[in-house]
Amino acid sequence: MNNNITYTKPVSTFKIIFGAIVILFAFYIILYESMLFGFFMVGFAVYLASTTGSQYNMDNNSVRNIWSIFGVHFGKWKVSPEFEYISVFKGKQKQRVNSLGASTTFSEEIFIINLFYERNKHLTFYRTFEKEDAFKKAKHFHLIFNIDILDSTEREQKWMSY
Question: What residue intervals traverse the membrane (predicted)?
């Protein structure tokens, strides 16, 4: 049985749709135009559809940062540190899109879960666009590691009690 906890960064709908369009166009280019340019476009589409995240293995107490594409995860396992507390905070995620000499930047509010160890070191384990989802995952870690949750989403930080 797989006893891994896996969280990956959400991929925006815009990126998924744009990646699907690029990959379809890339196959057309491979068949009728330039194989080299077509494969370059496939690589770009894979980049758009991929995501990053973290994975924790409860069986052997190890953790890894992952790169994930279509549910296949890549990353190196290392021994998990002794986590002291969980922090949930609000930040901004910026994404820059360049096309044909024009560029634009999208900015979205995001909630991030960090697991702290050795006083000030941390592992960013999860990112989400929804506050409720962030606290649901933080409660999951609270149950697994039996550690406290620090709510840093507002100006005044507070410890959560469960």
Answer: 12-31, 37-56
